[in-house]
């Protein structure tokens, strides 16, 4: 195929992919960027969830659960989240036919701190991000659009391949003097090159949630069995008390900065507490203690660093997707790249409009010139 013909074919492919998936990816990117800002925004909106620990004795998980049940009668407690000595405790509850909910408590007094402001907004943003808030059909649309990201990237690189391909400035420098369609092309192509790596990483990891075959393939390569679906509320045995296990956890892991306490026991009767420390590499790097709920004796202990490499890779997919694997700078880059995603849909659409308009002007000019030549002949 001749280079000029190949370029036209790839341009049409890039354009068709943009028409079919650009707006979807814009919505997914915008909501993904908002989700990247969730933690600091919720912290700003909910100063009451930061509690004063000075001189106060921490209550026990049983007291927290008792307060949560009193606030939400008829719900079953699923887990307790402890986020450190200066933060509210979250008790997660579920009930058949209702969405799971969480009650925030003062871990020292047991007082209910009220609903977390902004949580419903970010829950809606997450539904749009995952499936356009349209259930299984929306999930398939998001998955197909995410797969088309690779088409955008591959065709876009070919279409903008500069003559001086070895020069970084030829790829990364924007011509700020450009006007009209050239200006929009600069935004579309050069900014897209800046964000190439974040978009590749987001697409490659995002497909893990979109398609079972992709998830199963990655799990198989990593040697990780398919995750088991969680039992519905009330189907698993509930520990009579968490206090003995919690006391043992505090002795065994005094360096913990956050923890998630299961309220249901495993098949062997053990109660699991997953936790992180200041040295944890990312927000999905959980160490684990399995304890006897009766006397708090340690059944097993597993550090994240000791897990097989494949399990650590699968656990890292979400931090890679959100940028948190790279710390605060990674979160900022990932959120910024996601928020800029609508730019490519809008700039591509506007360039298409300008291209059509310019083509129409050229046709009219050619027609007028032909008419003039006929009259003067």
From TrEMBL:
Pfam families: PepSY_TM. The chain crosses the membrane at residues 12-37, 141-161, 182-209, 332-354. Keywords: Membrane, Transmembrane, Transmembrane helix. InterPro entries: PepSY-ass_TM. This is Sulfite reductase (NADPH) flavoprotein alpha-component.
